[in-house]
Specification:
The chain has about 290 residues and is α+β, with helices and mostly antiparallel strands. It has one domain: Metallo-beta-lactamase, Chain A, CATH 3.60.15.10. The chain is about 15% helix and about 30% strand. The strands form four sheets. The chain has a seven-stranded mixed beta sheet with strand order 1-2-5-6-7-10-11. A seven-stranded mixed beta sheet has the order 12-13-14-15-16-17-18. The mean pLDDT is about 95.
């Protein structure tokens, strides 16, 4: 079993004139069998060791993205959306700053963030879109436009029994109530140089996010590929609402990542979260930058 080098810092990469910096909103631990689906424990534990409760420890890493014309945050971490009594169940370790404070710590005025986008709205990705102030949720970046898939928003804010464990609607609704929400459907531009590519799979309306400038490309993979160890085609999480959809989305996405030599960003990667996807003898794998 290899040693995991947990990365607590900020990684920075450039895509043409676009600067991308990973943030760290804390850690969570989820059941390893669920995270790796049909992959046997004897294989996945060689990548991420399980704790005494069979959980693997993973990061939550939003992105701060600075383009020539915009300052964006992609994904938002868990924030304050989950009740403290659930923290032990999910192995949540976040006693640090809120999302806007993470941005400020990098020398960026939170008021300059004009756009926030999410690949999907599960609580570990969207819980920090709003923050608690005096017992009420308010948008973390009050003047920003929040961009999400329309179908994802409809499920997240009115979850059925199938979905209710995955979403925290009370932490999302203030975005619409305060007029800060922009909903799109399918492939769509977020701002120039940053766009959604619709994938389905992990959720019914999941979308990865491409970053493109001056002939260079990057891709934030959301939960279609949560960690570098999930890159092999069959290593699909049992949390995916449509495993077959995830497989087909990966089959379509990976050749583009390889052809464009795209920088990829892994949201849940416990080690260094930036790298590339390569293909060796018809098998895809990740190579991390460090």
């Amino acid at each position: 079993m290899r040693e995991v080098r947990y990365f607590n810092g900020n990684a920075t990469a450039r895509i043409g004139r676009i600067e991308v910096t990973t943030l760290l909103d804390g850690w969570l631990s989820l059941d390893g069998g669920a995270m790796y689906g049909v992959v046997p424990k004897t294989l996945w534990e060689q990548q991420l060791p399980a704790d005494a409760r069979n959980r693997v420890r993973m990061a939550m890493r939003p992105l701060l993205v600075r383009t020539p014309g915009h300052t964006l945050v992609i994904e938002s971490g868990i924030g304050q959306a989950i009740a403290p009594e659930l923290h032990d169940r999910y192995g949540i370790d976040r006693a640090g700053p809120t999302l806007d404070e993470l941005v400020r710590a990098l020398g960026v005025d939170p008021a300059s963030v004009d756009t926030v986008a999410c690949t999907h709205l599960h609580w570990d990705h969207a819980g920090g879109l709003c923050r608690l102030e005096n017992g009420a949720y308010r948008p973390t970046f009050p003047d920003a436009t929040y961009v999400a898939q329309k179908g994802e928003w409809e499920i997240a804010t009115r979850p059925t029994n199938l979905h209710k464990a995955s979403y925290a609607p009370d932490s999302l609704l203030p975005l619409a109530e305060r007029g800060r929400l922009r909903l799109v459907e399918g492939d769509a531009e977020i701002v120039p140089g940053v766009r959604f590519e619709f994938t389905n799979g992990h959720t019914e309306n999941h979308a990865v996010i491409w970053l493109e400038d001056q002939g260079q490309s990057g891709c934030f993979l959301g939960d279609l590929v949560p960690t570098a160890s999930h890159v092999p085609l069959a290593w699909i999480s049992a949390y995916d609402i449509n495993a077959g959809g995830s497989w087909r989305a990966r089959e379509a996405l990976y050749p583009k990542l390889v052809q464009r030599n795209a920088r990829v960003f892994f949201y849940h990667e416990p080690e260094y979260p930036v790298g590339r996807v390569t293909k060796d003898h018809n098998r895809y794998r990740a190579i991390l930058d460090t």
